[in-house]
């Protein structure tokens, strides 16, 4: 497998966590979203992903983009360890939390949107994340065990950790979100989350390496 990734892309990080959890070895091709006006806009990368976004994963003779579509494919083809609970109610909760982050928070504060916001980008990002986290905290108070839904790592957790990382980057006060903070801390203790962390990637700038 070949993963097209950017160290700080939260969408790429979700996929890196899934690959690590499932023990799937891969080669990484860095796509720098800032260098050269954004390497994702090159003709070469547009041929890989017409949406000109990371991640993209070449695997089993196909090329997939969109992080959740990639994770669902990995789940379907390499089901151990599973990232979707067998219990259908819990499974729905996992998908709900994942979608809440992937559709309701992250796109509002991603790079392409922030470029449009100019000097207000920090304030915009903080407001979008805080608004989403207020809802997320309420949901997690009903679904959480050790992690987002019960005590097993699920697709929801793969979405949570990169979003909390974004929140901290944009200096969001995490005080009002104790459940979210607790789950994030527990997940960051797991090896798959450590090795996939933005500070540990081949394309991480030296000053941001951990």
Question: Could you walk me through the main structural features you see in this protein, from its secondary elements to its overall organization?
Answer:
It is found in: Cytoplasm. Its main location: cytoplasm. The chain has 210 residues and is α+β, with helices and mostly antiparallel strands. It folds into 2 domains: 2-80, 3-Layer(aba) Sandwich (Glutaredoxin), CATH 3.40.30; 88-193, Glutathione S-transferase Yfyf (Class Pi), Chain A, domain 2 (Up-down Bundle), CATH 1.20.1050. 50% of the residues lie in helices and 8% in strands. It contains 9 helices and 4 strands; from the N terminus they run βαβαββααααααα. Strands 2-1-3-4 form a 4-stranded mixed beta sheet, covered by helices on one side. Strand 3 and strand 4 (62-65) form a beta hairpin. Helix 1 packs parallel to helix 3 (67-77), helix 4 (88-104) packs parallel to helix 7 and helix 5 crosses helix 6. It is globular. The two termini are 26 Å apart. The mean pLDDT is 96.
């Amino acid at each position: 497998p070949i993963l097209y990734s950017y160290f700080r892309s939260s969408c790429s990080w979700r996929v890196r966590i899934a690959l690590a959890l499932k023990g799937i070895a891969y080669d990484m091709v860095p796509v720098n979203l800032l260098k050269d006006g954004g390497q994702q806009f090159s003709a070469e990368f547009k041929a890989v992903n017409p949406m000109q976004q990371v991640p993209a994963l070449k695997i089993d003779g196909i090329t997939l983009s969109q992080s959740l579509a990639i994770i669902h494919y990995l789940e379907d083809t390499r089901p151990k360890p599973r990232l979707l609970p067998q219990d259908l109610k819990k499974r729905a909760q996992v998908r709900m939390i994942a979608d809440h982050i992937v559709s309701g928070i992250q796109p509002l504060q991603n790079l392409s949107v922030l470029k449009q916001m100019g000097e207000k980008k920090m304030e915009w990002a903080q407001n979008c994340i805080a608004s989403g986290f207020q809802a997320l905290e309420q949901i997690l108070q009903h679904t959480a065990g050790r992690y987002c839904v019960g005590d097993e790592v699920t697709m929801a957790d793969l979405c949570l950790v990169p979003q909390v990382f974004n929140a901290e980057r944009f200096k969001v006060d995490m005080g009002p979100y104790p459940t979210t903070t607790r789950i994030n801390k527990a997940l960051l203790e797991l090896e798959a989350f450590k090795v996939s962390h933005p500070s540990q990637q081949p394309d991480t700038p030296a000053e941001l390496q951990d």
